[in-house]
Amino acid sequence: MRNALQLSNGFIVTTDNSGAIGQKKLDVVHVPDDVTSYFSARVTLLEQWVEGAVPEAIILHNFSDEDAWNRYITGISRLFREIGIGLPRITGSTESNMETLQSGIAITMIGESVKDIPPVQCLKWFTYGKPLVGDKLVAEPEKIADMKCIYKAIQQDIIGRIWPVGSKGISKEVHNLFGEVSFECAWDIHESAGPSTVVLVGIYEEKIQQAQQLLGELLQPIVVHA
């Protein structure tokens, strides 16, 4: 089930949230606030790309404190700068009446669909990235699916569709795509991919070699059994 809402006027709304991840003493995972917002924005943007959409506005909900706002903006800005696309307009609000004991944010993007999405069966499917979550994610950043490469492959019409993997693992998302099929891939199919460190990518068959050159060794085939 995707975190996307299609509106009647062609706009796409996607969202993601993070709780107890940040700089507060009682957070479960301790990372800088800009890292939290970077990965939350990453998931939200991937969900836009699932729908063939380009984000036009971002709404940031900050439940941490007023000081965290600018750090969260820094993380969101870094994501778009790394990809090489303009930062959408950002608005939002901060919980300033009550002091919270743990960090919390939500990021919502509003975008417009600009690309037709081909059927699942017209593409060859691969995993891109390694399942990682929490401290494992911090330890192996080079194993995370690269957003700039994904965007470039979409722009060059190498990738026809994407499908992010989250906390329920590769198995859940493959079954969402194909139904209850038997399949194999390079990773533990039940392991959490956290903030979509793995993305399922559907590639046009005649462009698989180009995809391999662009995405590298983290691109691994999904073998679906009939």
Protein model, in words:
The protein is of the alpha+beta class. The chain has two domains: 110 residues, PurM-like, N-terminal domain (60s Ribosomal Protein L30, Chain: A); 106 residues, Phosphoribosyl-aminoimidazole Synthetase, Chain A, domain 2, CATH 3.90.650. The protein contains six helices and 13 strands. The longest helix is centred in the N-terminal third of the chain and has 18 residues. The mean pLDDT is 94.
Which stretches are low in confidence, meaning pLDDT under 50 for 5 or more residues running?
Answer: none
Question: What CATH architecture of the largest domain would you give?
Answer: 2-Layer Sandwich
- Global Rg: 17 Å
CATH-level-4 superfamily name of the largest domain: PurM-like, N-terminal domain
Number of extended strands: 13
Number of helices: 6
CATH fold assignment of the largest domain: 60s Ribosomal Protein L30, Chain: A
What key attributes describe this structure?
226 residues; alpha+beta; 60s Ribosomal Protein L30, Chain: A; Phosphoribosyl-aminoimidazole Synthetase, Chain A, domain 2; 2 domains; five-stranded mixed β-sheet; four-stranded antiparallel β-sheet; 6 helices; globular
Care to give the gist of this entry?
With 226 residues, this protein is α+β, with helices and mostly antiparallel strands. Helix content is 30%, strand content 30%. It is built from six helices and 13 strands.
